[in-house]
Design brief:
alpha+beta; Jelly Rolls; 2 domains; seven-stranded antiparallel β-sheet; six-stranded antiparallel β-sheet; 4 helices; 41% helix; Butyrophylin_SPRY; B30.2/SPRY domain-containing protein
C-alpha cells in the first residue's frame, strides 16, 4: 500500500517536472523571439537613418555644387571689375599729361569700357536654380509629412486593437450623467432619479462599460483634458458596487487595475497597492491597452505616447469591463467630463 502511494507521488512529481520543463522552455522561447524582434527593429531604424543621411548628403551636395559654381562665376566678375578699377585709379594718380591722347578721348574710352563692363558683369546674370531648390524643399517637406503620418508606429499598432465601447448607465453612480451616446461621464451635484439596480455603484463615482472582453487584445483612449482628478481602468464585473468600503474603488483590490490622477500626480493601483509615478507631464488623453494572451494592462499618455505603467496580471480569470471615475467637481475645478474617444 505504501509502495503504491510512493509510486503515485513519483508519477505526479514527474508530471509537474515535465510541466515545469515546458514552462521554462516557453519562457525561453518568448524571450528569444522578443529579443530577435527587438534586434530586427533596431536594425531597421539604423538602416532608415543611413538611408536618410545618405539622401541628405546627396541633396546637399547638389545644392553645394551649384552654389560653388555661382560663387566662382561671381568671383570672376568681381576680379574683372577690380582690374578696370585699378587701371582707372592708376590713370587718376599718374595723370594724362605725358600721353598724346586727348583727355576727352580718355573719357570716351573709359566710359565705353565701363559700360561694357557693367553689361558683362550684371549680377542678375548669375542665378541659382530656384525652381529646383523649391522642388527639393517641397519634396523634403513631403517626406517629413509622410514620416510623421506613419509614426509613432506603436500608436498605429495600438489603434489597430481599438474596440468599440459604450458606458452602461445602469452601473453609473446616481451623481453621474451618462451621455446619450454612452461615451461620456460627467459629475453633477444633483442626485439623479435613476432606477434601483443591483449593479449600480451607490457610493463610488464609477461607471462600467456595457461591453466586456475575455480574449484578444484591446485598446481605448479616454479624453481627460481640463480635469485635475480622475480614475480609469479595467475591472472584473465582480467588483463590489455597494457601500463606502474601499473595495468599491478601482484598483483597491485584486479585481481591478487603475490609473489615478490628482492635482498633477499619477498613481497606478492594483490589489490596494499604490505605485506613485515620477511623471510631471499633464496628458490630455490616456490610452489603455489590454492583452489577454500576454496578461497585460498598460496605461499610456497618448499625447506623446509615453508609457505610464504596466501591470503584468499573468492570467485574467474573468471578463473585463472598462471603468471610469470622473471624480467630484471640486468646487468647479474638476467639472469637465471624462470622454471615450471613438477614433
Amino acid at each position: 500500500m505504501e509502495k503504491n502511494i510512493q509510486d503515485h507521488l513519483i508519477r505526479q512529481r514527474e508530471v509537474i517536472r515535465c510541466r515545469l520543463k515546458k514552462l521554462n522552455g516557453k519562457q525561453n522561447e518568448i524571450k528569444s523571439k522578443s529579443s530577435a524582434v527587438r534586434e530586427s527593429i533596431v536594425k531597421k531604424y539604423e538602416e532608415m537613418r543611413r538611408v536618410l543621411e545618405e539622401d541628405c548628403r546627396i541633396t546637399l551636395s547638389l545644392l553645394e555644387m551649384e552654389e560653388t559654381a555661382a560663387v566662382q562665376a561671381l568671383d570672376n566678375l568681381i576680379e574683372t571689375n577690380c582690374l578696370l578699377l585699378r587701371e582707372i585709379e592708376v590713370q587718376l594718380n599718374e595723370g594724362t599729361k605725358d600721353n598724346d591722347t586727348h583727355p576727352g578721348d580718355w573719357v570716351t574710352v573709359y566710359e565705353d569700357r565701363v559700360q561694357e563692363l557693367l553689361t558683362a558683369t550684371d549680377p542678375g546674370l548669375i542665378k541659382l536654380d530656384e525652381t529646383k531648390s523649391g522642388q527639393l524643399l517641397d519634396l523634403t517637406n513631403n517626406l517629413l509629412l509622410f514620416i510623421r503620418s506613419q509614426i509613432p508606429i506603436a500608436k498605429r499598432l495600438l489603434k489597430s486593437y481599438s474596440s468599440g465601447v459604450v458606458l452602461d448607465p445602469s452601473t453609473a453612480h446616481p451623481k453621474l450623467i451618462i451621455s446619450s451616446e454612452g461615451d461620456c461621464a460627467t459629475f453633477t451635484d444633483v442626485w439623479q432619479d435613476v432606477p434601483e439596480h443591483e449593479g449600480r455603484f451607490d457610493n463610488t463615482l464609477n461607471v462600467l462599460s456595457l461591453q466586456c472582453w475575455d480574449s484578444g487584445r484591446h485598446y481605448w483612449e479616454v479624453d481627460v483634458s481640463g480635469k485635475i482628478y480622475w480614475e480609469l481602468g479595467l475591472t472584473y464585473s465582480s467588483i463590489p458596487r455597494k457601500g463606502q468600503k474601499e473595495d468599491c474603488w478601482l484598483g483597491r483590490h485584486s479585481e481591478s487595475w487603475c490609473l489615478e490622477y490628482f492635482d498633477g500626480d499619477y498613481t497606478a493601483w492594483h490589489g490596494g497597492i499604490a505605485h506613485p509615478l515620477p511623471i510631471s507631464s499633464c496628458f490630455h488623453r490616456i490610452g489603455i491597452f489590454c492583452s489577454f494572451p500576454g496578461g497585460l494592462v498598460t496605461f499610456l499618455g497618448v499625447d506623446s505616447m509615453t508609457p505610464l505603467y504596466s501591470f503584468c496580471a499573468g492570467r485574467f480569470t474573468d471578463s473585463l469591463h472598462l471603468a471610469l471615475c470622473p471624480g467630484h467637481d471640486l468646487q468647479g475645478t474638476n467639472s469637465k467630463p471624462v470622454k471615450i474617444c471613438q477614433s
